[in-house]
Amino acid sequence: MQRDLRLIGVGRRYGIRGPWVLRGVDLTIAPATLTRMEGANGTGKSTLLRLLARLDTPTEGRVTGRPRTAYVPERFPSALPFTALGYLTHLGTVHGLSRTTARRTAGTWLERFGAGAHADTPMARLSKGSSQKVAVAQALLGEPELLVLDEAWTGLDAAARAELERAVAERTAAGGAVVFVDHDPRRLAGAPDATYTVRDGGLERRTGGGSSPAGPLAQVTVQGPAGGALPPDATRTVTTAEEPTPGSYRLAVPASHSDVLLRALLTARPPWHVVSVTPPSDDDPPSADLGSRP
């Protein structure tokens, strides 16, 4: 993101005399952050997400900042005159990719979400689960600076849900921002930098950082070039980093982000040497509150 996205005194109602869905909302979404939105049904969570994605305009107040944004709605319109691969390829070209690159990237995302076998299936014939995989793929293929997810995990199988969590971690590690709503309180538990509750038309920030205590942490020991600093993508992902000797680090990382950390280290130039990885054991206690990652 080029700069923060900000909602300043934002209100939204439908109709000239309709009730206010949201009013007096102030919110800042910074780069490289994960934000969770909570609230009972009908409180205005989806309205807030549509305002962040600039798919809706406020009745009062203003929105500043224009990051490249991708949005996954709760219900994705699947009756489109494309195959799954054709639809994603088309959107890739809209994002500015060449047709060859768009087609290759689209195929990669379909494979990642376990939908590669449906690449040539017309969108109208896809199951709800497969259609949802296309929905999340279309949001990710353009590497958005702001990713907005409204119940995006609904309808996905377990493997695809885990893959979407990895994709979220990749986006924030790469400096993007992610805002999400999900009915499962365990979704990305401990990972959000901030959690807000939409209530009575307003927005309340939950104190104490993430939405719940994080799960156990994996421990990763790495060795880098002499005098080298950790790659930025790795720094954003880890919870703690100790440097016992120059260029050697002991890192603690939430288990859901460990593969993102390893990818950042191994694809760095020059690559870092991963000395050891110690996964968390089932009886490890929860980690302390993560708060805001660096």
TrEMBL record:
* Presence of keyword Kinase: no
Q: Entry's PROSITE patterns? A: ABC_TRANSPORTER_2
Superkingdom of this protein's organism: Bacteria
One GO molecular function term of this record is: ATP binding
In this protein, which residues make up the domain named ABC transporter? 5-225
Q: What is the lineage of its organism?
A: Bacteria, Bacillati, Actinomycetota, Actinomycetes, Kitasatosporales
- The segment annotated Disordered runs over 200-251, 275-294
Q: Can you name the source organism?
A: Streptomyces broussonetiae
Q: Protein name, please?
A: ATP-binding cassette domain-containing protein
Q: Which SUPFAM superfamilies match?
A: P-loop containing nucleoside triphosphate hydrolases
Against InterPro entries, the record matches this protein to:
ABC_transporter-like_ATP-bd, ABC_Transporter_VariousFunc, P-loop_NTPase
Which spans are transmembrane here? Answer: none
Q: Which UniProt keywords apply?
A: ATP-binding, Nucleotide-binding, Transport
